[in-house]
Write a structure and sequence with these properties.
Length: 173
Amino acid sequence: MDTTQQQANVNGFVTDPYVRSSWIAFFTLWVLWGLSYFLRHAFGHDQTGTAAADPETAVGSEGETAAAAKKPKWKGIHTSLTDRLRRAHEVLFENTLLLLSVLALNTFGSGSTRAVMILSWIFFAFTVVNAFTEVGVSHHLIRLFFNIVFYGVTLAIGALAFHQGWHTNGSVF
């Protein structure tokens, strides 16, 4: 339906194989999100102990210099498995909701099919790469790059939904 064709009804639209593939991309992303939800609880156990003493009130403490010396030597690397899995889970969760919202918009409006399918799989691929990147490296420029890609792809899907779908006999605008 990437041409000027219109689908007669929603049933005809959702039986299109491209629409089905778009929703398969969403479901696969949802499965990965569920897997990360499980893994962060199964394998991500931080060591918990007593609360650290306030460096300003602790007697015999070296204050901020001791706290600064205990920071990890490598910047940009997550410090624990729990932190890594939590961040990967957040990426998968947020992107699952982003993809759900624009696919629902496209499906209810009987919008684009093939282009949205391609964009959905591109979104999925970048999300998987981003989740694995978050497990290993934490850097704000990497997050900025991926977030620009995600915003652009979801904006394109939403624009296609309104451009090729949501046909009415009249409009308020």
